[in-house]
Amino acid sequence: MTTIKTAQTNDERHPLHGYQPAPSRFKSRKNFFKSTTEITPSFEHERHRKWIASNQTNNFKIKPVEKLPPRYRCEWNTWKALNRLRVGVARTKKNLCKWGYNTETVDYECGSEQTEQHILVCPLNSVSCTPEDLAKATDAAIQVANQWSRKEI
C-alpha cells in the first residue's frame, strides 16, 4: 500500500499525482493518502533487515530453486511431514504449546523435549537423520517423516 502512495506522490505519470484529498466529513473516516506513510530508502532497508532477521530462524537453510524438490512423489502424509520438519513448523508438542493449542507438558515419551531437532534423532525412532538429509530428502529422512506422519506431526 505504501508503494501506491509513493508512486502517487513522486511519479508525474500517475493519474493521482498532485491530487489533494477533500477534507473528511467524519472523524472516524481515514483517507488512504493521509493514513499511509511514504516509502523511503531507510524504510525499505529496515523492512528488508527485519525480513532477513525473521528468516534466520529456519535452521535447515533450504535454498529456494525453480524445480521440483527431491522425492516429490511421496505419499501426501509423508510429504507433508517432511516439509513441516524442513521448515520448522512440525506439529510438535513444543510448537503446539507455543501456538496455544496444547497446554500440556512439552516432554515426549522418551523424556526429552519434543522439538523438530529432537524428532530427527529421537531414540524411539528406528532411524535418525540430519537437517541436511531433510533438505536432500534421503531415505533416512523419508523414513523419519513417514514414522512421524503416522503420529500426525
TrEMBL record:
UniProt-annotated stretches for the region Disordered: 1-21
At the top level, the lineage of the source is: Eukaryota
Q: What is this protein called?
A: Uncharacterized protein
Q: Which species?
A: Cinara cedri
